[in-house]
Specification:
Strand order of the largest sheet: 2-10-9-4-5-6
Number of helices: 0
Order of helices and strands: EEEEEEEEEE
Structural class: mainly beta
Radius of gyration: 13 Å
Distance between the termini: 40 Å
Length: 113
């Protein structure tokens, strides 16, 4: 059974940092394109970042480029999203996703003073 469990969200002030984790089970993350997507209040899903299978090449949405870093720990089968210089517009529920398919339950990120 495929499972994705996100953690690490919370309330942070503008300019702060958070590191999200996504523990995967039931499959090996290095065999899939893995993504982070988010959903702001009242809006649709927005793709944030992805990491390719194998070599692990990374890609980012323009809105987070230079501030967010996606990575993975192959031994722990865990995906990460390091988020720096956070802005209020980064507020939302963050999900990790396997390709265009399964997502976890999400973790809430709130950026507010």
């Amino acid at each position: 059974e495929v499972q994705l469990v996100e953690s690490g969200g919370g309330l942070v002030q503008p300019g702060g940092s958070l590191k999200l984790s996504c523990a995967a089970s039931g499959f090996t993350i290095t065999n899939y394109f893995m993504n982070w997507v988010r959903q702001a209040p009242g809006k649709g899903l927005e793709w944030v970042s992805g990491i390719t299978s194998g070599s692990g090449r990374t890609t980012y949405a323009d809105s987070v480029k230079g501030r967010f870093t996606i990575s993975r720990d192959n031994a722990k089968n865990t995906l990460f999203l390091q988020m720096n210089s956070l802005k209020p517009e980064d507020t939302g529920v963050y999900y990790c996703a396997r390709g265009l398919g399964e997502r976890g339950q999400g973790t809430q990120v709130t950026v507010s003073s």
